[in-house]
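Model: Ready when you are.
Researcher: Fold this.
Model:
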Amino acid sequence: MLLATIRRDLLVTFRNPAEMLNPLVFFVIVISLFPLGISPSADVLQSIAPGVIWVAALLATLLSMDLIFRSDYEDGSLEQMTLTEQPLLVIVGGKIVSHWLMTGLPLTILSPLLAMMLFVNADGIEAIVLSLLLGTPILSLLGAIGASLTVGLRKGGVLIAILILPLYVPVLILATEMIKTGMRAGDYSGHMLWLAAILALCTGIAPVASSAGVKISLSH
């Protein structure tokens, strides 16, 4: 059922490619504006690159977070999913995975090109890719909790940001420090272990909380 849910959501997205392209375009535009708005100097761009890349990735992920449950809610599919014999937990887990495959993974693949534009060295680029591979699934997992609680509300995207942004702060701090350490050719294994621990914790908690949030939203 997990794979079937992932496959279904991916097919729906590919039929409406704008949903997948919007976060990517936003990610590219935000990062591209910093050399124009601040300075084209390599030293300046290197110093701000970790924060710029991660803030842009965070905002791009938030941009698409409302879509996890919204379309299924509007056409009634989400309510039908809660009434099937299949565990809602598995269905929600599949939706979170498909969201990461449509947003987090493409952002990670695209990040080395944008990092080079910000004059990040090879060690820093490696740290960026690893931090995004570990961090973006956390963004999807935590964002799904907010999306489940606001799926039945108008302007749910704004409420998701208010609810979830505070939870993103530890990930943002760890990931940016990991990249800074990597750019200095330092050992960032500790940062990776912390991100992996947060990912494991969120993997265990977020699908359960999101399933409960969906039921609460549908009951109103």
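Researcher: Now this one.
Model:
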Amino acid sequence: MSTQLNILVLDDEPRVLDEIEEFLVGKNYRVFTAGLPSVAFGILSAEEVNIMILDVKLPEMGGLEVLKKVKLSYPEIEVIMISGHGDMDTVIQAMRHGATDYFPKPFRLFEINNAITRTRRYIEVSSQLKSATASLEVLSRKLIESIGTQLIGESQAMKHVLHLMAKVSQADNTSVLILGESGTGKELVAHGIHYLSQRIRQPFYSVNCSAIPETLFESEFFGHKKGAFTGALEEKPGWFEIADKGTLFLDEISDMPLNQQAKLLRVLEERKVSKLGSKQSRSVDVRVIAASNQNLEDMAEKGTFRNDLFHRLSIFVIEIPPLRNRTDDIPLIARHFVEHYAKIMNKPALSIHPDAMNLLQQHHYPGNIRELRNIIERAVIMCEGYVIMPEHVTFKGKENIKTADHPSENEGVAMNHPDMDLPILTSHNFDLEDNTRAIIIAALEASGNSKRKACELLNITWQALNRRMTKYGM
């Protein structure tokens, strides 16, 4: 969007038009004026307008009708309403049909300018969000084409991650450090940076640093000549050589032994590698992206990770938020995995019951996206109909409804919930319906017939409790 806003003022009072125009031109806005809706629509068809200041009472058609037509044909234009009749119903109707602000006459001109400033910020933020969403769609398509999966998320946190990925992907040689808990998708972000960059047609090579024996570090990273050591029966390229012109992703970099970190640092600074057993060195053009679920800065301060290597790797840092900090993304991700696993298992299209979705959004997810994926895979396996229900949603393999897990060898042992005075008695009656009904009764009695407290004891939602009570005629 250009720095100069284009503003159209539609009002049938010439004096009001002149005052607003003179004031806004003095504020460096480009201003168009119209006294009739037909004239205003002619301007809209010929000029790019960002904001419209619109009177409610007009000839030809009412201001609310003009507002509806403008938002239908030009949804990107933001509309500020003004009126000599500031009744609440008109205000509500204007806001309902898309107006961003409303002023009763007479108004002070600086108030209009403040409204324009607020609207301008809204336009800029909306433009940024649209750009981020479009970039996410492009990136998702590239990832699906290349590695069969994609980045999923519409939260502000994920759009910020995407924004950083897009920015750093254009800095072709800058090292990137991706931080985040296990299962948050660090490798996927690294893939995204690679596929947004100019290196897209070159190799992306992933290395798990925690899986490399210390004795093989130099051979794996830099390669070796034939006969360089016992067992070196042929010449072997190292990972830097394999990833030349492309991207080398070093996962779990915090697990790299200290004495090997200096060798990695030297390569990053010199951009040259020497194979074991060779006196020759060769230049490499490799973009290094490292990832860790540990706080490398803390490790560097404690001396468990080289401080100079940390600063070399962390020129540009991207932190991926844990899933529990972006619960708004859970429905989108869950539905993606449901569709994925239903297709793999040759099942019909499945939906997720609102109570099941509530359970998914309330979970803490220590395993992040990976854990959610596993939960959905189990749910799809368990679902025999067309809807994933709360009973299909299990965490760490356990039912989400708390029942007596395992009765002891002695019949009739009391199983007590820590917050319940009344014991839940179990026996060798393994009928799930009978036991579930008995547990609900016990929870209600223990909570003084408070459904809210009973839900907390049973670890289920109010809707789930109500559904079960109806099912059991309670």
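Researcher: Key takeaway?
Model: Residues 109-147 form the longest helix (39 residues).
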